[in-house]
Amino acid sequence: xxxxxxxxxxxxxxxxxxxxxxxxxxxxxxxxxxxxxxxxxxxxxxxxxxxxxxxxxxxxxxxxxxxxxxxxxxxxxxxxxxxxxxxxxxxxxxxxx
Length: 97
Prior knowledge:
By secondary structure, the protein is mainly alpha-helical. It has a domain at 6-42: Histone, subunit A. 38% of the residues lie in helices and 0% in strands. The N and C termini lie far apart (60 Å). The mean pLDDT is 90.
């Protein structure tokens, strides 16, 4: 079992660039000890003959064929826009200098 020491908590605190007072460090230490105990408990389960689960579903890499299809014309695209110059859709300026 991994020993959760004050030094380990201090090292993790330093690596995460967080700061905790002594009360918080004790709470974190207790929580980490509970997590380690939980993982140790999982090691007791007999998983002989159980295949690892790599994906939730049996489907993998389901992609459609990249088929070029037709699109609408510029005139059709501009048909319902509020403001256009005939080539582009005109929108209000949103970035001010």
